[in-house]
């Protein structure tokens, strides 16, 4: 009996050793970055490996680095605002007393990746629906809702907007759950009472981060560990984060709930009217998915705060049914909204804001 038990243990250990060797060969074969259960750690390793392979110097690593936000668009913020905005003066950007001012914050969907500045939904909203107003676009590619909030608090509020629209791309929630995505970034830890504790600031400069790896202070997969266990951990993490969400107290949603509460409080305290714009993932993968759950939870949270929630999914789906012109670019071409998609979004934003004083919940907001 003991001999059989030892044989089972030995066979199991041998099998695990062979699997470990196979996983290591898989990652070593094409010089892949080793697996890690924490996606932020692996994203950091990917960033370092990419810059080392391309021999990108520390000074070239990230022109838009920002110690408080991780990265931002430009050192000359006013120039960026004039370039992306609609109806803005060439000179002083002080808030006029006789014009309404709209501010959009968001990620690459709001910034308008793959379309011209005059084709974004923010610009078209101004041109087509608010020609006498001023529209500012502070969308930044790669931002999560945490960085959008920090951007408004540090930069956006200085423009004294009357209306602030947060463009929440549903998959962007996962960016807020990590301290490294496209680069190192700040992140929030929520407390039991939905307060937010800021972590990860100041963000290390690219030169300093690269220097730590080049100097040996930090290394990719520096400590001995099991690639097999790390790969299994990464798979488990993906399953956990992509699971369906059914309730606002779900750990995956608690952080976003707290971010939205602070967004509403900050904009309202500044005398602005907050609006939540909910941007779906690709439409073919949206229905009956965690992304639809995020859309529903975001609408519910906006209703609880008595602010308008604009879900673009129904309008985009209706536009797809009514026309052969796609609202999203092909996935192989980067995805994101097409010019037609931005037009539909601008029209839907205007439709909701035209009824700004009406409850955003047709069936009544929850208690």
Shape: globular
From N to C, what is the helix and strand string? HHEEHEHHEHEHEEHHHEHEHH
> Are there runs of 5+ residues with pLDDT below 50, and where?
358-367
Number of helices: 13
Order of the strands making up the biggest sheet: 4-3-5-8-9
| CATH level-two architecture of the domain at 66-203 and 245-353 | 3-Layer(aba) Sandwich
Distance between the termini: 64 Å
Estimated share of beta-strand residues:
5-15%
Q: The CATH topology of the domain at 66-203 and 245-353 is what?
A: Rossmann fold
Q: Provide the residue-averaged pLDDT.
A: 88
Give the C-level CATH assignment of the domain at 66-203 and 245-353. Alpha Beta
**What is the CATH homology-level superfamily of the domain at 66-203 and 245-353?**
SGNH hydrolase
Rg, nearest Å: 23 Å
Give the biggest beta sheet. Answer: 5 strands, parallel
Structural class designation:
alpha/beta
Helix content: 40-55%
Number of DSSP E strands: 9
What does this structure look like?
The chain has helices at residues 2-29, 39-53, 77-84, 108-111, 121-129, 145-154, 173-176, 206-214, 227-241, 251-269, 290-304, 312-322, 339-353; strands at 65-66, 70-71, 101-106, 134-139, 163-169, 187-190, 196-199, 273-279, 309-311. The relative contact order is 0.12. β8, α11 and β9 form a beta-alpha-beta unit. The protein is of the alpha/beta class and 367 residues long. Strands 4-3-5-8-9 form a 5-stranded parallel beta sheet, with helices on both faces. The protein is 44% helix and 11% strand. The chain has a domain at 66-203 and 245-353: Rossmann fold (3-Layer(aba) Sandwich). Mean pLDDT is 88; it is low at 358-367. It contains 13 helices and 9 strands.
